[in-house]
Amino acid sequence: MLRKRSPASQPQGFRGESEALLGEAAVCSRSSRGRLRFEPSPDLARHHLPAPPMLGAPESGDHSGEGATRTPRMDARTWRLGWRCLLLLALLGSTRSEGVESCEEVRKLFQWRLGGAVKGLPEAPRAGPDLQVCLSKNPTCCTRKMEEQYQIAAQQDLQQVLQTSSSTLKLLISRNAAAFQETLETLIRQAENYTSILFCNTYRNMALEAAASTQEFFTDVGLYLFGADVNPEEFVNRFFDSLFPLVYNHLINPGVTDSSLQYSECIRTARQDVSPFGNIPKRVMGQMGRSLLPGRTFLQALNLGIEVINTTDHIHFSKECSRALLKMQYCPHCQSLTLSKPCMGYCLNVIRGCLAHMTDLNPHWHAYIRSLEELSDAMHGTYDVEHVLLNFHLLVNDAMLQAHLNAQKLLDQVNKICGLPVRTATQSPRCTFDPSKERHGMKISPRNGEETLANRRKEFINSLRLHRSFYGGLADQLCVNEWAAAEGRPCWNGEDIVKSYAQRVVGNGVKAQSANPEVRVRGTDPVVNQIIDKLKHVIQVSTGQITQTQQVGASSSGQWWRHA
Fold first, then answer.
1. pLDDT, tens digit, for every residue of 219-253?
2. CA–CA gap between residue 203 and residue 327 (Å, rounded)
3. Which of 6, 206, 235, 452 is the most buried if burial means most Cβ atoms within 10 Å?
4. Dihedral pair phi/psi, residue 140, rounded to 5°
5. How would you class 208 by CB atoms within 10 Å of its CB: exposed for 0-12, middle for 13-18, buried for 19 or more?
6. What is the distance between the alpha carbons of residues 17 and 94, in angstroms, rounded to a whole number?
7. Whose CA is closest to 36, among 81, 73, 6, 67?
């Protein structure tokens, strides 16, 4: 006899689930005549299932006589209604292990998720006294070994979802870091080319001799921009020191002559005393101070951002977190609730507890993005790294003209310091450069606004700004988008299927977790603390350098490298 189970005899979650199904479907009962009766709801009645053969109907070819005893037949309509009732009750009974005779679905999902053999897995629900997390009064489809493997899978699930959630942000930063570095490399090559062509076009006699100094200078610029431990003051001074003997031999005291190595070295060391190039070397230091230093720090900060995301993508979860994840994600499987989803509040408590230390990154991450904005703003106008590099050759030309205008004064000063040169008649090698390349090289093509480094940087910052609160809202994002049941739907609360989660939902961050009913959060995470310290450092350096470069811009001082 089919009988409705009384609400009092049903577990809370099963009762809520059953009521929902019965409300949508129908009510089964016995009629006063003992006949099975089914009262379909209007929704279910609209779906007409084909009627199977009537019970007791004679098979084809049965030619029983009139005197033969006939089995009473159930009319077709009654059979159809009863069949629907049986289907409905079967559905209701299959919602948990106490009404399920097989663990086949759980076995299949276990094999699919963990890729292991199903041998040794329960074929039917049974007692599970050795389980440590997925405890239940009802028979279970899980073993202790399954529980251990589920716990590993639960950690992997969270790690995978974290990596998926951060993939857009990581791609944004890594692509722009690579593009920024590639653009800087291109600008350095262009700037070196413009400077070399300046010598070939205007100072042809000294072009080949100046090539080595020019190449060394721009190599040092690149090394500095990309983080090498080089001193910018030294390579700026070294360039102008090496340039002065060439200017002296070809502009100040010209002739088909060459001085000895000792005399050239004397001229080189005298450069900073006689100042043949006026204030041009200091102007170079000032402009590069306000462009190279922020550019170097900006690139280093981008690489740190990638490191932060890589670290949080592979964060280690505590034992308490792992057990809570297991309970939320896979303990329902042990009760054959393979399609259940956790309640929203329950999910938030578990994930906020697991990601509590990571959430505390958020204010530092926000400040980090703000420091990138300020660094980007510091590289603008005449102090934009693109502008400074591509106009370096113009400052070199100004320096040469300055020396040429003061030729007699410089000649007297050098003769006084180094004496008269010992002349040896030689022919200076000349620059051999394709004139078509000269004209092309010396013409700096106007660049489209969309193509400039400043505009690309601005576009990147605008996109990055959307991720300022990434770590603060990560737990909520994972529950809303990935794991939790929709509002108003029956859901898993860690023990049963319920209509809603009854526990208090805690906030984000470590401090808020003292009242978390699902995950115990204690101590600090040394890995998270380490990346917080790195973020603090780059923020502090960025802020200090922005102030420093602003002061450099006002004074054209050469002290900008000291805080690099």
1. 999 999 999 999 889 999 999 999 999 999 888 88
2. 78
3. 206
4. -125, 155
5. middle
6. 11
7. 81
The alpha carbons of the chain give a radius of gyration, in whole angstroms, of 40
Distance between CA 189 and CA 74 in Å, rounded? Answer: 93
What is the token pair recorded at 10?
Answer: 């049903």
| Residue 429, both tokens | 């090698």
With vertex at residue 463, the alpha carbon angle to CA 457 and CA 468, rounded to the nearest 5 degrees, is 115
Nearest to 268 by CA among 293, 243, 296, 236: 243
CA angle at residue 419 from 415 to 424, to 5 degrees? 105
Angle between helices 292-313 and 144-202 (to 10 degrees): 160
Tell which residue, 232, 133, 269, 192, has the closest CA to residue 441: 192
Give pLDDT tens digits for 494-516.
999 999 999 999 999 999 999 99
For residue 257, give its domain range.
170-299+380-453
| Residues 385 and 291 sit within 8 Å (Cβ to Cβ) | yes
> What is the count of structural domains for the chain?
1
Residue 265 is assigned to a structural domain of this protein:
yes
Q: What angle do CA 316, 114, 482 make, to 5 degrees?
A: 60
124 CB contacts (<8 Å, ≥6 apart)? 101, 102, 103, 139
Q: How many residues does the chain have?
A: 564
The rounded distance, in Å, linking the Cα atoms of 390 and 393 is 7
* Sequence-separated (6 or more) residues with CB below 8 Å from residue 550: 290, 378
CA–CA separation, 328 vs 133, rounded Å? 10
Which residues, 6 or more positions from 540, have their beta carbon under 8 angstroms from its beta carbon?
none
Q: How far is CA 495 from CA 13, 33, 330, 331, in A?
A: 9, 42, 11, 8
**Predicted model pTM:** 0.74
Of the two residues 123 and 188, the one the predictor is more confident about is: 188
Helices 280-289 & 526-555 angle (0-180, nearest 10): 150
Amino acid at 189: R
Beta bridge partners of 38: 28
**Is residue 482 a part of any domain in this protein?**
no
Residue 305: alpha-carbon gap to chain centroid: 8
Instruction: Give the pLDDT confidence of 52-80 residue by residue, as tens digits.
Output: 333 333 333 444 333 333 434 444 344 33
The answer to whether 369 and 467 have CB atoms below 8 angstroms apart is: yes
- Whether 221 maps to a domain, the answer reads yes
